[in-house]
Design goal:
Blueprint (H helix, E strand, L loop, with lengths): L6 H7 L4 E6 L4 H8 L5 E5 L7 H12 L5 E5 L5 H9 L4 E4 L5 H10 L24 H8 L1 E6 L2 H5 L1 H5 L6 E4 L1 H7 L9 H16 L3 E5 L3 H10 L3 E6 H17 L13
């Protein structure tokens, strides 16, 4: 059996736009609804959602049944032992939060690679189909896609060097944490924050790497795409459930629907 290629990594290298959705319900049944929607990628959140390794692998298995949709997992922290566990599940694309320096970025890349390029431990796991991909150890490094989140003032100060780090495929701007770091917590649409985001997208693409972001605001999403963002999440499963259940209840109870949140990002 041949080791699987990474279609998302290939798409980013070819600068093909990939539209995705954030998934935080931590449930395979709910994930199947999202997987059938037609998104290019779905993010399984291991940082701010109640996921564990078992729930993540179950959701990845669901996504795998829908060709054309790629599973990305966000780890809670960029430690080598955490990266190893997620990769051993067969996840090929990782999103790592709170990366502030090129040194951190380089260490993360090293943690995702087998020796001699890195320090990922070798074992017969689901990633290699327990040895049924006989060339996996030699082929895996080239198929791992590493995305890092820049979401602080410090990260923006080091953004060019982070983006230039070998093995980093893309940089994702985290608007919510960035707004807090810039002194505007909960207000990612503040002009100062938006100016910083626009500049970051331009700098990332200028470095030849993919720029990513999440927003539920269609106008903002199209603006980021026009700037050159390549992987953009345009919704969250939890947000969709909140908005539509509240609107439905309000419709029949004769009460005003709750005002939409002013925080369009996560």
């Amino acid at each position: 059996m041949q080791s699987p290629t990474n279609p998302f990594k290939k798409a980013l290298a070819e600068k093909r736009v990939q539209i995705g959705m954030w998934c935080g319900l931590a449930d395979p049944y709910a994930m199947e609804i999202s997987a059938g929607a037609g998104f290019d990628w779905l993010l399984i959140d291991g940082e701010h959602s109640p996921n564990d390794l078992r729930s993540i692998v179950h959701q990845a298995q669901v996504i795998a049944a829908y060709p054309g949709t790629h599973a990305i997992a966000r780890v809670p922290v960029g430690e080598a032992w955490v990266l190893k566990q997620y990769l051993d599940l067969g996840i090929q694309t990782l999103l790592v939060p709170m990366v502030d320096t090129p040194e951190q970025a380089a260490a993360i890349v090293k943690g995702t690679r087998y020796a001699p390029e890195g320090i990922r431990g070798m074992a017969g796991t689901r990633a290699s189909r327990w040895g049924r991909f006989p060339a996996y150890a030699r082929e895996a490094n080239a198929q791992i896609c590493v995305l890092v989140q820049a979401e602080t003032r410090e990260a923006l100060a080091h953004l060019d060097a982070i983006a230039a780090t070998d093995g980093i495929d893309g940089v994702f701007i985290g608007p919510a944490d960035l707004s807090a770091s810039m002194g505007h917590p909960g207000n990612a649409t503040h002009p100062e924050v938006q100016t910083a985001i626009d500049d970051a997208i331009v700098r990332i693409t200028r470095a030849g790497k993919a720029a990513g972001i999440l927003t539920t605001d269609e106008k903002l999403a199209r603006h980021y795409l026009a700037l050159g963002a390549t992987f953009v999440a345009v919704g969250l499963d939890t947000n969709l459930l909140i908005r539509h259940t509240a609107a439905l209840a309000a419709l029949y109870k004769g009460t005003p629907a709750p005002a939409p949140s002013t925080d369009k990002t996560y």
